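Quick one, T. Sequence first:
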Amino acid sequence: MAPRFAVLVVCHANTARSVMAEALLRRLLADRDLLEHVQVDSAGVADWVRDGMLPSLDARLVLREVGIELPAEMASRDLRRHRGLLAEADLVLTMSRLQGQRVAELTEAAGKPIFTLREFAGEEGDIADPAAQGEDVFRACRDEIHRCLERSLDRLTAYLPPAR
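Structure tokens:
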């Protein structure tokens, strides 16, 4: 088996955007038979993120609309408490520049490529937080994340080590 490449997706609380991005990226990789070569995880970087926070109901609902069920045991992770995720990451994708700056402040981020998801897709700007704005805003956020992931998939796979 080829070595695994680790992608870490980060947002504020790890209850909406990064959760949706993790699930959508896993599906895109599985559709291309690449999931066994890529480890995808997510975490939150805000001061108020707590381990064990449940994914947003709106995030769950809009993912379910596209056939993705989040595992019942899925819960947020505070990146500051789970720095091993960052230490193991080969690529970090954030939803905003501020989150990228917060990640870069952690010792384990030294030398790691850190991009906003839109930046990695060849665009500018952040992916806005849909929290407390209802299903339509979550749906639009899901679709924006999916579009950026699709646009950046070739770039991501270029990072993968060659199969042995």
